[in-house]
Amino acid sequence: MLLLISPDSVEEAREVAKAAEYLDIVDVKKPDEGSLGANFPWVIREIRDAVPADKPVSATVGDVPYKPGTVAQAALGAAVSGATYIKVGLYGCTTPEQAVEVMRGVVRAVKEYRADAFVVASGYADAHRIGCVNPLALPDIARRSGSDAAMLDTAIKDGTGLFDHLPPEVCAEFVRLAHEADLLAALAGSVKVADLGALTRIGTDIVGVRGAVCEGGDRNTGRIQPHLVAAFRAEMDRHAREHAAAATATVTAAAATATS
Q1: Residue 120's closest CA among 96, 93, 147, 82?
Q2: Which of 30, 36, 177, 197 places its Cα 20 to 30 Å from the Cα of 122?
Q3: Average confidence score pLDDT of the chain
Q4: Is residue 50's pLDDT more than 80?
Q5: Is the four-CA dihedral 178, 183, 188, 194 of positive or negative sign?
């Protein structure tokens, strides 16, 4: 699993940079504008300059409406500002067709500017609360639009998390559908250390966190702490080792049974 950390300011990104060895992607967002709130272009540029050059920067385009042209321009702005991962929250899309139209515009705008950019179609585990597209439709939306990854977050930040809205077995189906479509599967939404075992078992490719590595566990009032990033990564690595060991043991036992 790759670890994506979301600072909300240049100052906080400098703190994140102190823990760069423990993370894989630095994500730029503006939490006070929503779950996937977009930050300013100059903030993206300054954060790009503040973190090590070998760490890709992702940027959220916002919890977007069904306005394909507007969203395409916003996505291009994020790419021009230095982001190589472009995340679009399909908040205002009520049908897969609307979502595909929005994402096709984003993919074209971004990849005509930078072919190696990575486009992420993002939906919401709590879609039922806001009336947007079904979470399990996201992998097909991403595939049809030419995106590179499908992601789920939570739209309403009220203390509930990913698994409160979609149990691990449903998230596992999301990951399976993404992998069948040759996409990366990213999961976020008030993810905590206690969720890492399930996220590892279901094969999540990218896990996104903010609150879990903030002082006091508060994504809005707390600040990201480098030691919490390091601790979160240590738990990720522990679960990965345990999962790999269990898988090896299962294969060994199966082989022994077959030859006995």
Answers
A1: 147
A2: 197
A3: 94
A4: yes
A5: positive
CA–CA gap between residue 205 and residue 40 (Å, rounded): 28
For residue 29 the two structure tokens come to: 């967002």
Catalytic residues: 29, 87
- The residues that bridge with 195 in the sheet, in sequence order, are none
**What is the 8-class DSSP label of residue 84?**
S
Q: Is the per-residue pLDDT at 95 higher than 70?
A: yes
197-206 pLDDT per residue, tens:
999 999 999 9
162-221 pLDDT tens trace: 999 999 999 999 999 999 999 999 999 999 999 999 999 999 999 999 989 998 887 777
Residues 6+ apart with CB under 8 A from 158: none
Expressed in angstroms, the distance from the first to the final Cα of the chain is 36
| Chain position carrying tokens 């809205």 | 165
Tell which residue, 190, 183, 235, 182, has the closest CA to residue 208.
Answer: 190
For 172-178, the CB contacts below 8 A with 24+ separation are 172/201, 172/202, 172/203, 173/136, 174/135, 174/136, 174/138, 174/139, 174/150, 175/202, 175/203, 175/204, 175/205, 176/203, 177/136, 177/139, 177/140, 177/150, 178/138, 178/139, 178/142, 178/149, 178/150, 178/205
> Which residues are CB-contacts of 260 (< 8 A; sequence separation ≥ 6)?
none
Q: Taking residues 105-124, what's their average pLDDT?
A: 98
Relative orientation angle of helices 10-17 and 226-259, to the nearest 10 degrees = 50
State yes or no: pLDDT of 233 exceeds 90: yes
Rounded to 5°, the CA angle 135-129-209 comes to 60
DSSP secondary structure string, 118-185?
A: EEEEEEETTGGGTT---GGGHHHHHHHHT-SEEEEE-SS-SS--HHHHS-HHHHHHHHHHHHHTT-EE
